[in-house]
Each structure stands twice: as structure tokens, then as C-alpha cells.
Write a structure and sequence with these properties.
Blueprint lengths: L5 H9 L33 E4 L9 E2 L6 E2 L6 E2 L14 E10 L7 E9 L19 H10 L12 H5 L7 E6 L8 H8 L1 H15 L3 E7 L3 H10 L6 E6 L8 H9 L14 E5 H13 L5 E7 L7 E6 L4 H7 L13 E2 L6 E2 L13 E3 L20 H5 L6 H9 L3 H6 L10 H5 L6 H65 L6 H30 L3 H15 L7 H29 L5 H27 L13 H19 L13 H30 L4 H26 L3 H9 L9 H8 L1 H35 L1
Parallel strand pairs: 7-8, 7-10, 8-9, 11-15
Antiparallel strand pairs: 1-6, 2-4, 3-5, 5-6, 11-12, 13-14, 13-15
Amino acid sequence: MLSPSFDSIIETLNNNKLYSFPGGVHPDDKKSLSNTTTIQVPSLPAHLIIPMRQHIGSDGTCCVEVGDKVQKGQILSQSATPFAVPVHAPTSGEIIAIAPHVVAHPSGLTEMCITLKPDGNDTWCDLSPIPNYTEVNKNELINHICQAGISGMGGAGFPTHIKTSTSKPVEFLVLNGIECEPYITSDDRLMREHAWQIRQGLDILAHLINPKAIIVAIEDNKPEALQALNIACQDKEAYRVVSVETKYPAGGEKQLIQVLTGREVPRDGLPVDIGVVMFNVGTCYAVADAILQGKPLVERVVTVTGEAVKQPGNFKALIGTPVAHLLEQAQYNPKKQKAPKVVMGGPMMGFTLSDATIPIIKTTNCLLVPSKKELVDDNAERPCIRCSACADACPASLLPQQMFWHAKAKEYDKAEEYDLFDCIECGACAYVCPSEIPLVHYYRQAKADIRTQRDEKNKAEKAKQRFEARNERLEREKREREEKHRRAKEARLAANQAKSANTDAPAQPASDTKDKVAAALARAKAKKAALQSNVSNQTQPDAKTQESAPVSAVDSSGGSGDASGSDKKAQVAAAIARAKAKKEARAADASEASPSGTTDVDDKKAKIAAAIARAKAKKAAQQSSAPSSDETASFEAKPSEAEHSKSEPAKEAELESTTGDTGVNDTPLSEADQKKARIAAAVAKAKAKKASAKQSINSGAISKASGEERHISKRDSSEAAEVSKNESISTPSNKEETASQEHGSQNHHPQKESTVNSNSGGDVKSAADAKKARIAAAVAKAKAKKAAIDKEKELK
């Protein structure tokens, strides 16, 4: 609940009573210098300089270029920012420059300005008045006011469309006609001469804001203006025209609200926060022009006064008119000044201009040109005597003396502790100072420095945030790169490990290694055997030799228990058997043409060879049916097996030397056949001994199995050759039998068998190689099958 309440305020106003504010002064107003003449229209200047920002907020973007022809009222800048209002061409002419220029500011800073050269025609652009504004949407009216470039014309230049578009409830709409500062009479003359148009602007603002009460406040030292507005508002009972006591600075926004309503605007708040909205009479006049006639804000009333001008008065000057041109219109007399000096604003709150070419803007209400002794000299400052008169005169209840000390010492943080920014810069403290200290100048300088420091701090903070954000981004990117490289490295390591696992597997159990070695040997043997078998089949078309292959295969299948020793024995024995079988076959063929006396002997030999083949086949079948409990049995020979292999040739020799076991007949063998049997037995014993030695070597060198395979194959062929050689050497009648055969003897007798054996040494070798190949193929198949079975057992 706001205090005082709305009803109590209305009751107070109805009783012609008002509230008050602390402090304040009563300076000599000297308004009679300029308020006695009507508002004048000065001549057209040679150039108009239009600043692109003439209000609180941001400036717009220039819409024209150098060389463009423009008409009066044409928009020169535009912006979509809410706190930006456009500027317009004050008259028709040509744009001759768009560049920085000195503007109306105590620091003499430059801002972007548009320089217009008038053509003298003063031709208006197309206007869009809204006479029936009550029937138009409020948002459209507010936008129209904004596009007309209207901002507050009595002080800071707050955009008018922002005030009119407030969403907060408004209890009081106040029209400020106080104009309390000395010398200034522009609002006074405007109210006297254009009261009705001010009333029309007030009607438009009331329509947009819809307040509960409307107050027109005029200082009691302006009776003519008070009477004019009373007449203009007499048909509106809701409009209250109130006379306010003359007291400086009663025209300040916060002070006037406190006088009329008794409410105080919060330090960081706005008048709308306490239900009040205030407009200057010049703003109401411009709103009426914009809505009812469609004219943008291109001119305003400016007071040119002071004892240094011959004809002080009020001029309706175009926005952008240089100060020097208005001084010329008022007949400025520089002889009355020690040095040229022009103050923009009044003597209390105005500031000295640094250049006479500075243009008039929307917030310019006075140009004061004082004489030598009219104003206090700025260089007359003396030390502070601590009289506290400044504190008594401060309308904001501050401590100007303390703020002065800290501002002068540039201790801005301490000055802010004394509420430096609550100072309204009214100048009451400086007016009453007996030491003539320009206190307001110190406060303004301190505020400007603090704002600069804040801007720099904000920029530094933003730069710091950008820097930290950049560092964070770079660090994040670095981490992402490192993470990416780490994942790539891990992927490479995993790939290398997988590759090495495939090519160089870690140590495995001996059984797995043996299986792999055996499988590799089997594949090599099978491949070699297949090649040799193809060659052998092409070189031996003999039908009887073909029939002996199954027997050899059966024989070889029994040697699956030992890849080096037993296979070798079986291969040697099979080679001997094949040689004998071939010899018997040839003898049988020869007996068909020989006398019948030799037939019995040849048949007997054939039967002996058949018996030997059957015995070997039986043995091979037994060996193939015997289970192997451990893979190492393929590489290590048992003592019983060695003995068995060692006695095997002897048994074969017995089979050849006796017929008791063969079941053929009891006829004794010839001397040559017996000798052959003994030789075969001796060869078998030697091979068995050699095989047992190789078995022990193979059991301790599994990793060299591939080399042993090649070595064994080599020795097989050499031993087969050795068997042939031994047979030929051990036979005493070889030469005789060979000679008899060479002489073409057709009588066959037992000694011819040795001749056939010796003459067919090369055939035996080739047959042995072929047989070995077939045996090796069978052994490889058996071993591969056994390895697969063992693997399945391990998996189970």
C-alpha cells in the first residue's frame, strides 16, 4: 500500500494544499529578460548538424548517404532497439557529411552527426496524421509517437513511447510546467501561446495511460501560463491545474512528485513504481503535433538570454541549428564578456560549451550568455569553511561537503558510500556555498570517472570471461584430442595384441602343441604323398602292383602310434615286401614259359611272399586298432614296442625260411632264398635299432618335428637304397646269374631269382619310393584323424 493513499492525496489537492521537500533555495530568477516577448522563428542557418543520439538510450543506424536529397520530416536514422528513437531532417536539403562532430556535452566529446545543407524550400515529406486517435489501437499510437522521434524535452531525454507503454497501473499523470531554474522561460512562453495544443497532447497521453487523476503543475511565478492552462482545461473536471510554490529545484521530477503526492521515488526506481508518470509541457506539445498533424519532432523552443545579448528571447529553432546562429539572431555582444562564454541550460544546472558550432538538440531549452559580473567566476574557488550550508540546501538530503572531499581526492568508492549518484545535480549546494566552490562540477566529474571505471571493469570482466571461455575451450579441445589419441593408441595396441595372438600365440599345453605339430606334419606328408602317388601311378601300370596297394595301406595304417620310428619300419618292410612280390610276379610270368621243373619252386616262393604280406597286414591292423592314451606316444617308443619292432624282421625271416607257419607246403627253400632271408633279417634288425634311436631323439625335440620329417624321408630313401645294395652284394652268384641272363638262357632255375633281384635294383628303388608315398599318405590321414579325435575329447 502506497503512502499517502490516492484518496488522501486527492483530498489534499482539493483543499489547495501541497506537500514539501527538504532543502531548496530561492535564487533570483531573472526571467523577465526573455519572457516578455513572443516566440520567434529564426532564419534558416547555412548548415544543420543533426546528432544521431539526442536522448537516453542507443542511437540508430543512418538511413541516408552523402549526396542524398531529403525532405523535411524524413527519417535519417532508424533502430529496432526499444530505447532508440529516430532523428529526422529539420528541413529539406542535401546531405553533405556524415561524420563525428562536437555535441552538447560537458566533456566536449564528439559523436556521429549528419550535416544537412538546406535548400530553402522547406518542403515537407508525406505526413500521416491520426485525427481520430481514440479509434486507433493504442500500440499503433505508441509506435507512431516513437517513429516521430519524441523524447523527454525537459531534462534527461527519456523516450516518450517507453513511458506511455507501461504495464503498471498509473494513478497520477503529472504535466510539469514548473520551469524553476533562473533565466529559462521557454516553457512559460509555450504555455502562454500554445496552451490548447498542450491540452491536446495531454488528452492523447491520458488516453494511452488511462490514469486515475491528471495534475497540471505550474510555479506561482508564472501567472499568465497558469491562467492559460486553466482556460484550456476548464472543460475537463478531471484535470487539476495546481499552483506550486516557487522554490528551486521544485521542477525536479522527484521533488515535484514529492510536493504533489507526498510520495518519494525509490533510489533505484522510477516514478511509475509509485504510480506516477510525468511529462514536460514541451513533450505534450510535440505529441499533439505528431498525432494530430503527423509532424515528427524537428524543432523546439529555446531561450536565448543573458546580459551579453541585446535581444534576449525565445526562438523556435530547428534541431541541429548551430549555437552561433541563435546567438547571432539574439545579437550577441562579445564586448560584455571577458572571454566568450555560453552556458547550455540555466545557471544552476547548465554547462559551458566548448564550441559555438555545437548544435541544438531535443533537450536544449536555454542558451545563457552572461556578462562579466553576471555569474560567479569559476576561478574564484576558495577553501571550504565547513559551514554546512550545502547540506541544508540539498533537496536530496545528502552531505555535499563529504562527497566533495572524496570526489576531489578521487576516492570514488567512499564518495559512492555517501550516495553520490543520488545527487540530482541541481546546483543548490554550489549556489549557497560562501567559498564559491563549483560542487556540481566535482560531482559530475566523479560520476563520469566512476562510469568510465565501471565500463572498463565491465569490459575487463567480459574480456576475462571471454579469455576464460577461450582457455576452457582450448583445454576441452586438448582433452578431447588426448582422449582421441588415447583411444586410438588403445585400439592400435589391441589390434597388435590380436595380431600377435594369431601369429605368435602364448605358451599352450604340450598336448595342444603336439596336436598342432602332428597336424602340420600330417598336412605336409599328405601333400607330398599325393604328389608322389600321382607320379607313381603314372609310372607303374602293373596290375599286380596295384593290387598290393591296399595291403600296404593297411600296413601303414597300423603305424599311427609313432611318426618317426614305427612308420619308418613299416615303410622299409613294405618296400621289401613290394620288391619280393614284384619279383615273385615276374618269376610267375617267367614260369609259364619255363619247364615244369621250376614251377613248384616259383609257386612256393609266391606263397611265402603272400604269407609275409598277410602277416604284415594283420600286424598293421592290430596296431591301428590299439588305442593311444597320450599324444606323447607318437614321439616316445615303449620298450616293448622297440622289442617288438626289433624282433619283427626276424619273424619275417623265419616266415621266409620255413613254411610251417605259412601253411603252403614243407618243401625246403633253396640256398639262395635262405641267404636272402638272412640278409633281410639283418637289414631289419639294423633298421629297428636305428628307428629306436631316432624315437628317443624325437621325444626330446618336438619343435624340430618338421625338420625330422624331412630327415626321415631322406633316410627312408637312403635305407631303401641300402637294402638293395646289401641284397646285391650279399648274393655270391649275382654276377653269374646276370651273365647267364645276358646270354639269353631260357632255362629257369632257383638261382635266377637273385639275378632278377639284382637286375631290378632300380625298379625296387622306384617302387619303394611310390610305396613310401602311399604309406605316408595313409599315415598322415590316420594321424590327422587321431588328432581330431583327441581334440574332441579335450573339448568334452
